[in-house]
Design brief:
The protein contains six helices and three strands, in the order ααββααβαα. The protein is α+β, with helices and mostly antiparallel strands and 148 residues long. It has two domains: 106 residues, 2-Layer Sandwich (GMP Synthetase, Chain A, domain 3), CATH 3.30.300.20; 40 residues. The mean pLDDT is 79.
Length: 148
Amino acid sequence: MNRNAHNARKSKAPSQRQLRVGEEIRHALSEIVRRAAFRDTELADLAITVTEVRVSPDLRNATVFVLPLEGEAEPMVAGLNRASAYLRGQLGKAVRLKYLPALTFVFDKSFEEASRIETIMHRPEVARDLASDDDAATDDATSDEPES
């Protein structure tokens, strides 16, 4: 296997260190955002949830997925990106790393996607199809039994 193929295969999943650093940054940023007194009007008195932090393999960049508990997401993300230097400085006081990653804030759409899938799964036509699949599986299981 050549080196490039090995590196491409290796880079698909985050390393244990990336996951550990991302989780530590997530916990620290959650606490920083919770107690921060932002001067930015789009961030003042806004409840923000840090759902995930993905760190690059070299640990120099971090993508922070955030979700507002109320209000609009776009102005909040823009405000957090404007305040990223301040948040990075606060993060440096809370987390001990050789290199502090640059922070990029992104709206977390995974909850909307999960809600959309949940809605699809509860539609009558999907429930009917799922019920007929269950009936077929039950029929197959009973037909496998030997006759007496």
